[in-house]
Task: inverse folding
DNA sequence: ATCTGGCACTCTGTCCGTGCGAGTGCCAGC
DNA sequence: GCTGGCACTCGCACGGACAGAGTGCCAGAT
């Protein structure tokens, strides 16, 4: 089976060369640049087989070969190992993320960092509300009959909603309400907390009944609404660099990135085991991303998954390096978030 | 001076035609499409003068004329009137912005709306902290010796900072501190509030002294730090549509938009009188934007300026329509913010 | 059974020359 | 001061020729 083995070497060499040069790679160049120990003619035979099996293709007769999605898939699964980051890069990660003042700051630094390390578009999902717990609930009176409800999660997310009350509100009641809410909800998972609201309506002291009733609906909505899970996107300028890899236009891709929901779904479907997930080209099952690859991983503190992050780029990308960068950044972000 | 008058009509016609067709416009086409009442030959003479004066230029001999930055400037200043929005558009604005749940939601809807109306890249600045006032200050104990300080402004912005205290913190003291902080700062402009911090150190009750000292520095920093004034960007996909207007690459422009600080400076320098500001091409004084125009205006509630918003696009854009859209959106946003 | 060198073939990208069309500048005449 | 006419200049699209790269296949070597 030294036969099959060599064919895989050829595929690996094709992927590596094509990724670095962006030129279809021919048998002669392959024989020169890699020590495969055989002549171009032999490589040609191997290439013919690889093409028949669907791993490579030629853009037109008499150009070299180019990996197909299937070829990249095999490369990622069996022919490559994550390329460890350099010491300088690791140091850069720490320096970059240190000194962030709040959640938004952490995430926007993360996305810039990831974009810079991989030279691709980076995306980071806000910690999902559904997996967060209540750190604090704040009630602020902004007008006589209007309250501002502020939810702070243990992951640092802040959600706020205005509530109109049917009647004027007493200052002391607001303070009491605040205490009551925090006694009831602090520390609870958001999903569990929503279930406590009906109870609260029953057990609240008489003077707070109307207030609780007024904010109840909004509170539940705030706690369970996972619809607005947000995304931070950065490094779109890198797309211009790789525009050649997207025949036609960058537009569908830029639109998908702005749409958020498409990318969000991809990024949030992370392996719970913490493995880096790669989706290549057509595997993405969304037209705008059919020429792109997505490398993603979950991040979290300890064993708690908070959200996903990753990169979006052309299928012709340096998978080993980018996968390593994505994983490393996710780990550091997890650490940082655990400290805050 | 019917002479000069007609020349300006010619310039206006050139701008309009060029904006809509993206083809250099020649004397013959001009005479056909516009009722200038003179022959192509006469128009040619006018064009020669306009070119000499620097308002138009020809890409190469024997192509039509194209407006220069100076030409667009004259057009914007003297040859055009803001084109009122259609009823449908006005309704779309209301529908789009209604139902926003918090500040971030309002601004991200705004940016999407503006991008959609103008088909350009839209940018919206968060309400500047320096012009905001304290609505509420919240102190949350997240660990025995660690506090979370949350600042909520009257514009709905939320800033949070973690504070490490040198000693363990008593729960009751936290409540007392919260009351003290709000009594002291609520309603004060952020800039003024910072000045009150030293006073607070003097007058705080003995049991709170150390706490106040611990949070003092962070508090001042949070109040005065205008560095992180944030920007929401949307509609970058529209750049792909007008890529032809940016010879070379979209990259510098995308980079500038990500850099934020460059665009932020442009957007935040708004006319206090509420006039729409247009910067054309080289007027931007930043290389990446030298081929782009920025249309911006301040938004605010009542007579209070909160921040700026606007669009970035090629110099070849429909100024009358876009200026009207920017102004209309700014007004609506001001209204919405005034209500919350 | 497998590899290798040689050779004919195919296709693309490029260069060059040509012709066409658009647009101009200028000038004489109204 | 406007107009029609005319010669001139370019850019661009089209088409043919050509070089280069790469392949597939086959006969011979190992």
Result:
């Amino acid at each position: 089976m030294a036969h099959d083995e060599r064919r895989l070497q050829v595929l690996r060499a094709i992927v590596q060369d094509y990724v670095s040069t962006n030129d279809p790679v021919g048998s002669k160049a392959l024989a020169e640049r890699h020590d495969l120990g055989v002549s171009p003619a032999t490589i040609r035979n191997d290439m013919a087989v690889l093409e028949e099996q669907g791993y490579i293709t030629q853009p037109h007769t008499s150009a070299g070969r180019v990996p197909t999605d299937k070829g990249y898939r095999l490369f990622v699964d069996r022919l490559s190992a994550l390329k460890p980051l350099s010491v300088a890069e690791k140091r850069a990660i720490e320096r970059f993320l240190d000194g962030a003042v709040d959640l938004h700051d952490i995430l926007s630094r993360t996305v810039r960092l990831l974009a810079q390390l991989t030279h691709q578009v980076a995306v980071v999902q806000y910690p999902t509300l559904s997996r967060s717990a209540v750190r604090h609930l704040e009630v602020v009176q902004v007008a006589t009959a209007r309250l501002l409800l502020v939810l702070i999660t243990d992951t640092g997310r802040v959600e706020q909603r205005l509530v109109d009350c049917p009647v004027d509100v007493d200052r002391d009641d607001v303070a009491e309400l605040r205490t009551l809410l925090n006694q009831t909800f602090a520390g609870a998972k958001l999903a569990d907390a929503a279930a406590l609201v009906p109870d609260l309506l029953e057990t609240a002291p008489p003077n707070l009944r109307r207030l609780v009733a007024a904010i109840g609906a909004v509170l539940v909505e705030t706690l369970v609404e996972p619809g607005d899970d947000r995304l931070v996107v950065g490094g779109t300028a890198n797309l211009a660099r790789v525009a050649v890899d997207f025949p036609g236009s960058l537009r569908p891709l830029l639109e998908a990135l702005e749409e958020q929901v498409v990318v969000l779904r991809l990024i949030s479907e992370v392996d719970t085991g913490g493995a880096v997930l790669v989706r290549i080209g057509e595997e993405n099952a969304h037209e705008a991303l059919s020429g792109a690859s997505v490398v993603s991983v979950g991040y979290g503190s300890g064993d708690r998954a908070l959200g996903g992050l990753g990169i979006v780029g052309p299928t012709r990308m340096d998978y080993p390096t980018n996968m390593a960068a994505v994983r490393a950044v996710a780990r550091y972000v997890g650490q940082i978030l655990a400290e805050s």
Remarks:
- Chain B has three domains: 1-78, 87-128+229-339, 130-224.
